Amino acid sequence: MGIKENCRNELRAAVRQLSDRCIYSASKWAAEQLVGIEQDPAKYTPSHTRFQRGSSSIRRRFRTATEAAFTSTPAAGVSHVATPPVLEDDNEAIDSDFYLLAKSYFDCREYRRATHVLRDQTGKKPVFLRCYALFLAGEKRKEEEMIELEGPLGKNDIVNHELVSIERELSTLRKNGSIDSFTLYLYGLVLKQKGSDNLARTVLVESVNSYPWNWSAWSELQSLCTTSETLNSLNLNNHWMKDFFLAYAYQELRMHSESLVKYENLQGTFSFSNYIQAQIAKAQYSLREFEQVEVIFEELLRNDPYRIEDMDMYSNVLYAKECFSALSYLAHRVFLTDKYRPESCCIIGNYYSLKGQHEKSVMYFRRALKLNKNYLSAWTLMGHEYVEMKNTPAAVDAYRRAVDINPCDYRAWYGLGQAYEMMGMPFYALHYFKKSVFLQPSDSRLWIAMAQCFETEQLHMLEEAIKCYRRAANCNDREAIALHQLAKLHAELGRSDEAAFYYKKDLEIMEAEEREGPNLVEALMFLARYYKAQKRFEDAEVYCTRLLDYSGPEKETAKSLLRGIRYEMDVEHLPP
């Protein structure tokens, strides 16, 4: 049996098993990967397949690995694991009636009724659903208490009161060896919420090694791997699901190139997976390859026109490129599809921000946070809006909420730096800029912000500023700020040779991009004077002649320089 057929059989069984246990997010994920496997043309005609082979240039572009390369990847050990077995409790008739009733209550969000129905059932399957329903009942009550005490966006220390009893029961089951992979997943979830991260990691590894098709367990495990050392220490079995996990983990750890390699290898088998395409777009977004990201998201919307997941990132790209019409169309599209999704609210917020209607933009970001107060993107974007409105206290609060949710969000740390810089507090700003640049060292904007902080009157640490501008220049400085500032700082410090070097490099780039402006004039003027002082009169004359094309005071200065150059050249040629 081939790789694709193995994966297809495993995922079909996983969708049924996960859905039967009410782990619907993992079931949905498995079903999406199932249809992402290229169908056998002998069994499926084009009219029966969701995606057409020739419809995507993006898939062809990113499928760099063949099936052979996919199987040779150590972590993609499809051949090591057989099709999921029929689980022990799947065919039990003893508790089936009670289980069906409890599952119906669960699906209607009547969690405590589901728990009560299964109170006397001892099979692994009903025990999991009973504990899971009790956990969600506690989560539901926690959310209610939050709103009652401090509103949907308030800070609080309210906890799920059911965690202690669930942990006690699941700990006993694990010690007795009478716990299955799904209940291990729930146990890991409980331990994570209680702050027992090390034990939670151990338990979740046991869960995914026992049953690797539960993506929810992998996702929780990833959230506990905050460093590459922690990730590498995990003792995971070889399976193709491990490749999905590692690709996702690399992305969250900002190892974007490694993540892309993994996803491109996975496309050898899951060639029509929208999930993989979206993850590739995320990695390229982090690498600021906006053109590629835009093409991928356009393709995703053609394949899945009612998709909202990840579309907020697409809106960020359209915002950065100032594509008014495309962003307006996307906002209208998600509004009609589901206007009360956090992603939809963020997209509409971006649209109003691009129009300069910052108050209305904040309203939509707040709506997104009412729907999901841990929605990181909304806190960060709302902070940006408050910065635009010059409301720095509100901006600082929004950014702090973002870093509370995810301390690895470099955009929020950068936003905090900007806010404190606006308040004239460069020492605080520098602290936050350093945090952001540690998390995203390849972003030139962060190095430039830190350099400008060093240049302020309070700090005036020009040597440190020069180091930061050098790093920015080596990080593909698209705003073309670093080289010019390096030239100016070296000139200010009296280092004419270094200043000339950077002015010349900056001038070459401006000429290649056909850019005009004061920076170009400044570079020509400095180089003219520099070469005149070096008695390289021919070079100096070239730059002076170019300045004659301008109509401002630089033209008169150039004429004066040319007269001086010619005079000195004449003096040089006088007989002794």
UniProtKB/TrEMBL annotation:
Pfam families named in the record = ANAPC8 (PF04049), TPR_11 (PF13414), TPR_8 (PF13181)
Keyword Cell cycle on entry:
yes
What PROSITE patterns does the record tag this protein with? TPR
- Please list the GO biological process terms of this entry: anaphase-promoting complex-dependent catabolic process; cell division; positive regulation of mitotic metaphase/anaphase transition; protein ubiquitination
Signal peptide from the UniProt entry: none
Show me the TPR repeat boundaries: 342-375, 376-409, 410-443
Sorted alphabetically, the Gene Ontology cellular component annotations on this record are:
anaphase-promoting complex
Keywords, in A-Z order = Cell cycle, Cell division, Mitosis, Repeat, TPR repeat, Ubl conjugation pathway
Q: Which SUPFAM superfamilies match?
A: TPR-like
Boundaries of each Cdc23 domain copy? 7-281
Q: What is this protein called?
A: Cdc23 domain-containing protein
* Organism from which the protein derives: Anisodus tanguticus
